[in-house]
């Protein structure tokens, strides 16, 4: 299969190509503000099934459903939109479109394969013009996990998506570099919807959510390395190695006491200070490192490095989470 990277502003035939891909039930790649996603119509089980095959994704890992307008939410969730409590509507108003995924009790329209048999469905409204244009064109919500082969860093540009999915899809919509660079924050609401639990940290932080809830908690798996026996027992989804480059990722607590003995072919990612070393890649802040982490991992893999030393972040919980999961 030929894989084509297209820009909707330069390709007059994009609608036709999209229609062809959908009619063949072939998932396609769309950009979002976080990372690129491998998309399928949420209610087309055959198309959704191919996502799992293409990504080599474990069947027990649920998919996020993407919408482009609030009226698409009603079909997906069991509660009536106008019965959602005010604080939840305020969260939606404040952060959508944007990098926040909210779990709701699902309606019967959502196939079990989408939620991996969970009664909850994760929904988000992405903030990327190209992603939104494609969503509007299709007119049906799209499931879209990150457009990588499972276990690899998520792609944050069309070329990185192509690297993993060449010959596995027909269409990659090019929307440039993703602004956020790490996947969306995933939250679960308590039964009364007054509290929330952060299952996956992202650009929308605990502090951002605090004004809307009586309590915001962080799931304990967030700062656990993936392979502890306890986490495997409690939540099968966290047992998989995530976000990893081929190079060994080594976290450095104190960049002034860097110990690289035993490695010859490595890079050092730092943000608190620029090192006087050729193999140092310096970022101007933790957030800057966060936005470039995955594309940097991929670039270093292309160079065939054996290890990458990364300065441990102090503030950015999403970055810390991705690094801890990568460093095993
Ligand atoms: O930023 C993002 O969220 C990107 C872009 C493409 O939108 N998507 C993404 O999807 O990161 P994925 O499939 O790579 O990660 C989805 C995460 C997984 O950790 C999954 O376990 C969790 O969200 N998730 C989704 N639905 C869930 C559910 N019903 N219950 C619990 N966790 C869920
Ligand atoms: Mg992913």
Q: How would you sum up this structure, described in words?
A:
By secondary structure, this protein is α/β, with parallel strands linked by helices. Helix content is 27%, strand content 19%. It is globular, with a radius of gyration of 20 Å. Magnesium ion (MG) binds next to loops.
SSE layout and pairings?
Blueprint: E1 4-6, H1 14-23, E2 28-30, E3 37-41, H2 45-55, E4 64-66, H3 86-95, E5 100-105, H4 112-115, E6 120-124, H5 129-138, E7 142-143, H6 158-165, E8 171-173, E9 185-189, E10 195-200, H7 206-209, E11 215-218, H8 229-234, E12 248-252, E13 266-270, E14 280-282, H9 286-302, E15 307-311, H10 317-326
Parallel strand pairs: 1-8, 4-6, 5-9, 10-11, 12-15, 13-14, 13-15
Antiparallel strand pairs: 2-3, 3-7, 4-7, 5-6, 9-10
The chain binds threonylcarbamoyladenylate and magnesium ion (MG).
Name the descriptors.
binds magnesium ion, binds threonylcarbamoyladenylate, 27% helix, 10 helices, alpha/beta, four-stranded parallel beta sheet, nine-stranded mixed beta sheet, 328 residues
Low-confidence region ranges: none
Question: Beta-strand level of the residues, as a percent range?
Answer: 15-25%
How helix-rich are the residues, as a percent range? Answer: 25-40%
**Mean pLDDT, all residues:** 95
Give me the side-by-side strand order of the main sheet: 2-3-7-4-6-5-9-10-11
């Amino acid at each position: 299969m030929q894989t084509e990277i297209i820009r909707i502003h330069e390709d007059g035939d994009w609608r036709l190509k999209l229609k062809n891909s959908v009619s063949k039930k072939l998932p396609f790649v769309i950009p979002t503000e976080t990372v690129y996603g491998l998309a399928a119509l949420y209610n087309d089980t055959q198309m959704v099934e191919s996502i799992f095959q293409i990504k080599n994704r474990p069947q027990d890992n649920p998919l996020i459903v993407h919408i482009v307008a609030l009226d698409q939410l009603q079909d997906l969730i069991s509660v009536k939109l106008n019965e959602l409590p005010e604080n939840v509507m305020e969260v939606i108003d404040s952060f959508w479109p944007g990098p926040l995924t909210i779990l709701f009790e699902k309606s019967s329209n959502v196939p079990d394969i989408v939620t991996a048999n969970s009664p909850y469905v994760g929904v988000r409204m992405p903030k990327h013009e190209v992603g939104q244009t494609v969503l509007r064109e299709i007119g049906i919500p799209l499931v879209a996990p990150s457009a990588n082969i499972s276990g690899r860093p998520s792609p944050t540009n069309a070329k990185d998506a192509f690297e993993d999915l060449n010959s596995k899809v027909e269409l990659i919509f090019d929307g440039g570099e993703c602004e956020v660079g790490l996947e969306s924050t995933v939250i679960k609401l308590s039964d009364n919807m007054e509290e929330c639990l952060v299952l996956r940290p992202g650009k929308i932080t605990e502090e951002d959510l605090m004004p809307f809830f009586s309590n915001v908690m962080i799931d304990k798996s967030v700062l656990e390395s993936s392979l502890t026996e306890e986490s495997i027992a409690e939540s099968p989804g966290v047992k998989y190695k995530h976000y990893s480059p081929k190079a060994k990722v080594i976290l450095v607590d104190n960049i002034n006491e860097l110990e690289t003995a035993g490695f010859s072919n490595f890079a050092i990612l730092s943000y608190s200070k620029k090192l006087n070393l050729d193999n140092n890649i310096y970022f101007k802040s933790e957030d800057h490192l966060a936005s470039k982490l995955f594309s940097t991992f991929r670039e270093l893999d292309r160079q065939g490095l054996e290890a990458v030393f990364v300065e441990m972040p102090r503030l950015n919980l999403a970055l810390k989470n991705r690094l801890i999961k990568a460093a095993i």
